[in-house]
Amino acid sequence: MNKRIVIKIGPGSIETGYTAAVQIGEEGMPPQVETQAHLLAAPDLPDLYRRWQQTYRLLGLPYRLEAHSGVTNVSNISQVEACRTASRDLRDRLHHWLNSDAFRPIREKILEQLNPEDTARILLQTQDPLLQRLPWYELQFFQRYRQAEVAIGSLDYQQVIYPGTRSGKVRILAVLGDATGLNTQTDQTLLSKLPNADIQFLKEPSRETFNQRLWDAKGWDILFFAGHSNSRSDCAEGSGEIALNATDQLTIPQLKHALKKAIDRGLNTAIFNSCDGLGLAADLADLHIPQVLVMREPVPDQVAHAFLQGFLDAFSAGTPFYIAVREAREKLQGLEARYPCATWLPVIVQNLAETPPTWLSLQGKSNRSQAAIAPPSPFPPSPFSPLPTRNRWQLTLTAGLILTAALLICRQLGLLESLELKAYDHFLRSRPTETVDSRLLIITNTSDDIDRRPNTTGSSSLSDATLSALLNKLTLLEPQLIGLDIYRNFSAQDPALAQQLKNTDNLIAICKIPDPTTEAVGKAPPPEIESPLRIAANDFVTDKDSGRKLRRHLLYLEPIPGFLCPGETFSTVIAQRYLKEVHNISRSSGLFIGAAPLPRLSGSFGGYHNLDSDGVQILLNYRILDPKKTTCGEVKETPADCLTVTEFLNQDPDQLRSSVKGRIVLIGTTDIDFGYQDRWLTPYTTTSFPEDQTPGVFLQAQMISQLLSAALGQIPLLTSWPEWQEMIWIASWAMLGGWIGTKRYARWRLGLWLRLLIFESLLLLACWLWLVYAAVWVPWVPSALALPAAGLTAQTALTVRSRNQKTIPSAE
Q: Which residues make Cβ contacts (< 8 Å) with residue 92, sequence separation at least 6?
């Protein structure tokens, strides 16, 4: 789907911040979504940009900025490295700026509305020269959306009415300006290879010659310039200047009338394969040209040639304008060893009232005229002659079985897995909220705690002194179990802590089993803990559909011989010990937790197909609290109360006793710097940014809560139907769709699409109810596809039959 995203950055300044808004819609349609937000003040950003710009321009490259004499050699390695360092600083600061909470509504709305496979134009509407020069496509956003490209749009724009028709060939006026120190012959050669193009070259023309050619009555589609150019930093009127020849310098306002007439006669795109062209683009935008393609900074000759070749090859082959620019720009990365930041240079300046051209549309071969004539509908408005019941059943069975077989094959091949997992996530998020699990308490080691109690003697996020203080206070408050979800594969330097780790019998610590298949390094348990009953594996299993999304709960995995880390996971060990000590429920087997049977995942389970189901795995049934009532900051995926390390150590023991005594207390780090590898995507995560992901200690609490609730019969474990039952379910909905497709209009008095919509709604409700109240993952996606597909197949077959018989009676 083609999307158009306009980010409006309104009044303000970089020193005080800006108001901002985003409009999202489909191409050619009014915006369907608009959201307001703010950009915070970033007074250091101009200095960071100027520092990068200065280091970039000091590289001594053969730019198309001004005439050079002699040979330039890129040999200053320290200067190149300084440029790269400055570019990283600028990119990181820009990323941090746009990741602020004030800008989050816009960021999340884009992520919500845009799919990774969508083609998208992202138009930055601003008059601020600094914002126009920033490298927006260096953001992580563009790694996720490969079919998106950013452009700059003016606050003032106007649609250009072109009443004429294209000539059949793309008419290009190519101006090769002052070539001192440059090789513009390569530009001419690349343009000459374009198919279906009528190109007129002007080599170092005079101002009069250039002006005369712009007035050509046939009009031009593309204006191209190669040579020397520059712009003032303020991008004010007349700030852009091109060198036509060795003596003539020219600004856009000096050709205003000729250019305006050329635009009225169909000039669609201007390409300046020259240096520092934002001033030129700003002047052309004032004339409402549809789009301009320029370099935002000085560009080396070789980079200009490489970009032009990549863009022309892609665009003339039918690639959309924006995607062709992105592909050509990203190909420049291969030159960045010699020419740092080459991918930052090309930028589109877009008239927001216009749509980018295609190579065919510039030839007058647009499909608009054909699209304006709608094809005849395959479903005539009048009803069909009634089918005998036997024939209806035959048609229903045929359509239903064909669609069922096709969908089951696609499902077994895993083609529907991504859709099914996304649908499963939506069902989980739509469930009612629950209350906290009063058997658990989470103590979080936050960034503020680390700043208050830094570890000056080791690399752990929790210092020996802080951990010792926690254990001392916890021992007085008598928790049932203490789970330390922080790796300590090193000896304690504090002798008192070493004794506490050794003698605290209700303390469970973690280790990590190495994975030879992924070369993941293992982590040993604390050397002070000798009993294997007080050690557990801290391992999760995640899905590949969207990063490290955690939907499954690993209970056991095969240990590595000789490595001191048992196969039972942290949540399993703690839950089993709690059940034994508090409820006298014996240790679980691989098939049961207490008396509750474990619905183990296999190769095919629910929406999973060809699943790596090593060890013992089940689905993780999240306990989700009301976000208005959660006690753990912004973390929604918490099943229990929580306190920070500072809050716990500062509170009076008598006030804490009721919150700790007899509970399972988990200790874990939530600081993003220390816990980056221990942050996870969940079905409830709305973005992939690390700060929005869930720390591992909260997921350990989820898993422990799930096992305890299942063993005590309070909350069931999530399961799915056997494969044969899922097949019958999918086939039933396909048969229903086929039956609907054989109905005639008059009898039901509702259109086919309305009938299908009603039953789709019932199907959605049924699948949601099964999951919420029976904890069964019912296959919604294949059923939702089978119902309309079988209905339309039957309806199409009925249409063909009716036309062959030439019998279409009037409606009853």
A: none
For residue 362, the tally of other CB atoms under 10 A from its CB is 24
Q: How many angstroms separate the Cα of 532 from the Cα of each of 489, 524, 563?
A: 15, 12, 12
- Check residue 335 and report its DSSP letter: G
Q: d(Cα 453, Cα 461) in Å, to the nearest integer?
A: 10
Least confident residue range of 295-299, 684-688, 707-711, 723-727: 684-688
**Gap between the Cα atoms of 400 and 730, Å rounded:** 9
Summarised one tens digit per residue, pLDDT across range 569-583 is 999 999 999 999 999
Cα distances (Å, whole numbers) of residue 495 to 186, 349, 380, 612: 74, 66, 87, 44
Q: Are the C-beta atoms of 496 and 469 separated by less than 8 Å?
A: no
pTM of the model: 0.53
DSSP single-letter state for residue 381: S
- 495 burial (CB, 10 Å; 0-12 / 13-18 / 19+) is exposed
**Nearest CA among 250, 115, 116 for reference residue 177:** 250
- The rounded Cα 201 to chain-centroid distance in angstroms is 44
Other beta carbons within 10 angstroms of residue 388's beta carbon come to: 8
Cα 689 from Cα 681, distance rounded (Å): 9
Q: Where are the beta strands (DSSP E) in 416-543?
A: 440-445, 481-485, 507-511, 535-537
Half-sphere CA count of 777, side-chain side, radius 13 A? 28
